[in-house]
Amino acid sequence: MIKKYIDKLFGRRERVTHKDARPTVYGKDKHNIQRELISRCARRTCEDLQRAGHATFVVGGAVRDLLLGRRPKDFDVATSATPDEVRALFRRSRIIGRRFQIVHVMCGAETVEVSTFRAHFTREPNEENTDEHGRMLSDNVFGTQAEDAMRRDFTVNALFYDPVKEEVWDYVHGLKDLKAKKLVMIGDPATRYREDPVRMLRAARLGAKLGLEIDAKTKEPIREMRHLLENVPQARLFEEILKLLLSGNAVECVRVLRELNLHHGLLPLLDTSLDDPETGPFAMAALRATDERLAADKPVSPAFLLAALLWGRVEKSLKKYEERGEPAVPALHSAMHEALDAQRDSLAIPRRFDATMKELWLMQPRFLQRGGQRPYRLLEHPRFRAAYDFFALRAASANAPQEAAKWWERFQEASADEREEMLVSGESGPKKKRRRRRGKRREDAPPTPHDEGQS
Ligand code: ATP
Ligand code: MG
């Protein structure tokens, strides 16, 4: 009561909290969504559910993206039907999830996720449904459509689109915020971050990806609350970071993360390495290259990007081991493990990425060896292409010799004769002889761990 009065006094806009609240409905002439842009599967799912008497809408990111003139990644559907009712209506569907059941409806190759309207809290957060930091543990309650809007994170993510009537239903001023290019948290931002600290990262990602300004009140609590991310399970955190890095706007996302001070401790790879004058430009170049590849609809490898972001750490350790006089290969192995261990202390990169990252790193010194049979063997390595891209990106960022990257570019294109020539012509004068002799000796030497890896 008092809070409401204070809100009114300070002109804060009132948010709908009533479970039977009425939405503002925008007809076809009041929004720019073209029905044809909704996938066939999502449209059919909505039509069939509506025909069976259930209120059903496309919801969330897809509606937001369409209103922004962007192509949605996927389509989510929200309905008043229970999971069992949905399941009964579609032959090719299955119920998934335990904590909160949703239904996957399949048409051809496409899958649409259908969830029943659910409430955010039936009660205020209390000891039963939150952990000791206020993080929400359970949200498994069906609710009204208004409640389903309220439980979502940002107003622009809480819009419903009815593809049959071509209407946008808005319970939270989402359309106005979208038009004003604002990312506004639904409800009290501090409470919502406490319930789910990942929303702080989502604010950074969605703000950057969609070009929305994070509203001042939505932004304000983040500085004080960022430590709550430490309580989030590692797997969820990593998943969110990966979404951020692969959002297509990684450079901007990282800038916003840093502005919000959310990168500290979370990801050493986004922390010190970007500021380091020796490795920072390479890490940034890798982020930029990822954005460019995504913009061109080319595939990207998360392991490649992670390896690039951690390379600074690897090099730092490598220097230390080399100064201690350790031979190059064992030094690189130790450095890699040290970098991965340091990373694991804050945000664990799942081990499934380890092998690829290590391979990329281990192949790097081999691009400096251009005598004898070595370049040929490197060229045949199944991961040559990725490792070469990694090396070329390093060279372009002054982290590896430009001249070596150019040599490899030519070597790949060259004919057999030209390649032979290059092996010799790449060297000069007395140095040439020494290098060649050394190269010869090396070939007689027992194989290094590099060589073992490639056969
Ligand atoms: P993307 O374009 O990355 O898919 P998205 O907004 O669709 O963005 P999803 O993770 O697919 O993100 O989530 C779908 C919808 O679920 C969101 O639009 C939002 O309404 C709701 N949602 C997702 N995560 C949260 C959260 N942590 N708290 C509250 N609501 C959430
Ligand atoms: Mg989505």
Notes on the structure:
This protein is α+β, with helices and mostly antiparallel strands and 455 residues long. It has a domain at 15-180: Beta Polymerase, domain 2, CATH 3.30.460. It is 51% helix and 9% strand. The protein is built from 23 helices and ten strands. The protein has an eight-stranded mixed β-sheet with strand order 1-8-7-2-3-6-5-4. It has a two-stranded parallel sheet with strand order 9-10. The model is unreliable at 6-16 and 426-455 (pLDDT under 50). Adenosine-5'-triphosphate binds at residues 60-61, 73, 76, 152-153, 157-158, 196, 198-199, 202, 243.
Summed over residues and divided by their number, the pLDDT gives a mean of 86
Task: Specify the overall morphology.
Answer: elongated
Extract low-pLDDT stretches. Answer: 6-16, 426-455
Query: How is the quaternary structure best described?
Result: single chain
Largest sheet: 8 strands, mixed
- Helix content class: 40-55%
Please identify which CATH superfamily of the domain at 15-180 we are dealing with. Answer: Beta Polymerase, domain 2
Structural class: alpha+beta
Taking the alpha carbons of the first and last residues, their distance comes to 73 Å
Number of strands: 10
CATH architecture of the domain at 15-180: 2-Layer Sandwich
User: CATH fold name of the domain at 15-180, please?
Assistant: Beta Polymerase, domain 2
CATH class descriptor of the domain at 15-180: Alpha Beta
- Percent range for β-strand residues: 5-15%
**Which radius of gyration do the C-alpha atoms yield?**
27 Å
Work out the helix count. Answer: 23
Sequence of strands across the biggest β-sheet = 1-8-7-2-3-6-5-4
Q: Which cofactors or ions or other ligands sit in this model?
A: adenosine-5'-triphosphate, magnesium ion
